[in-house]
Amino acid sequence: MPRPITLAQHQRHSVLVMSQALSARAQRSPFTLVLDDLNQQADQILTTMIARGLSRGINVVYVAFEHPSSHPAVRFIPAFGTHSHHTGDQILAEIERAIGIFKESLVIVDSFHDLFDIKGVQPVDFGNLINKYDSYTVGVYHQDIATPVHATSYAPSPLEVTKFMATAIFTCKSLAQVLAAKAAKERSLPEPTFGLLQGAEGIVQSITANDLRGVVIDAEFRRVSGRPEFETFWLRRTFTSDFEPPLAGLPFGPLKQEFVMCLEQLPLYCSDETMANVNAKADEIDVPFKLELTLRQKKVRDGVLLPHFDAQGGEGGEGGRILYEMGEEDDFDEEEDEI
Length: 339
Known about the structure:
Blueprint: H1 7-22, E1 31-36, H2 43-55, E2 59-64, E3 75-78, H3 88-99, E4 105-109, H4 112-118, H5 123-132, E5 136-142, H6 158-165, E6 168-174, H7 175-186, E7 214-222, E8 228-236, E9 261-262, H8 267-270, H9 272-281, H10 295-302, H11 307-312, H12 334-338
């Protein structure tokens, strides 16, 4: 039997797996699906993967349905605005031209909803194109967009097919909302809801959405054997200073030091100061009544003589005797008393 690994070994392994996925290592996860919503969008993940892909000198292709521009070194395929008349077949043809002459490519689609549900591209056809050229694919699916009803109701939706095809699934969460959920759990309170889940009229996005400090990622990696690995990571914003000076012809140099980490390693998440704030908030529970007694109420409570005190004051063997004084409304039954 293999020796069980320690927590530190598990964290190092998880960070290594996540680092390879973010650096577009096709052998780790050739098809990564990113799920986001209005509470936390996937822009920070896409920015990180573009920078890491360019630092490795691979061909980066960006299929844009929502963003008007990208890094100058990226092969940009616009599909919005005046370019929105392009059909799904035309978009696939442009992707093939952009990756056809390169040995290794990173293809990023910022909205699978537009590509599959609006343009009508079948996820299987898109996957066959990417596999044909041995490329690494990253696509974003917005969870707060209603999935259209298809003519064949028994057929799976494109989102379900994409989840089945993906070798890794990243779910984005806001750090501020994750900390709020942890504080509620520590106080044994219901987990708070944000945005559309609040059910409040007119609220579609919380003020704690899209935390600029970084993004929390619930990651699921699927092995070849079918056994999944789950871990939650913290990915901060990417800066130019995170990379070495670029070599000739490259926009980014090698990565200096890995900055993605397991969420449990984030000081803000597990520090003593954070836990102290959580425990301090436990005394501020808002209830419609007062839990404390006034001095007068305490004196009245102390002056109440309970029946079991008299029973304990009797002689030995009478400690369990019940003391009861009959009132006018009591009906005395002599026969029952004799029994």
